[in-house]
Amino acid sequence: MTDKFSPDLTKTFPCEQTIGYYFQDKILLWEALQTDGSPNCPTDNPRYEVGNKRLAIVGNLAMDLLLTSIWHSTENTSAVLDSTKLATLSKPSLEHVANKNELYRYIIRRPGTLFDVETLSTAVEAIVGAAYLDGGMTAAKRVVQKLEMGI
From the centroid of its chain, how far is CA 111? Predict the structure, then answer.
């Protein structure tokens, strides 16, 4: 499906500076910054109807793969991997990353909603997912390192 709209990309460049990655496809980052119900999302396109949640799924899997790859080169047990994933990829940990990097400055949310743990953690996952889709695992890793996520 071809997009028939021109999104406002004004928040993408400052966000790129914060996350340390510059997108080839700026619409991916734009999508990552849209929360569910964002007034900027076209309602006639299933890709955008849930805001950044689709990209958040991709980002969660990319971060999981990064952690697992690092674990593989160690002699740690799978129990250590599981506890590391729980700590690093938890909603409160991701919310902390969002706040520490002031990502709320770029997120477009539904009017009347707050920057709660769900909104902020989903945005972090979505940004990593967007970077992964734009530039592969190298791009996702760069974003994770720049945001100092502990991966």
Answer: 21
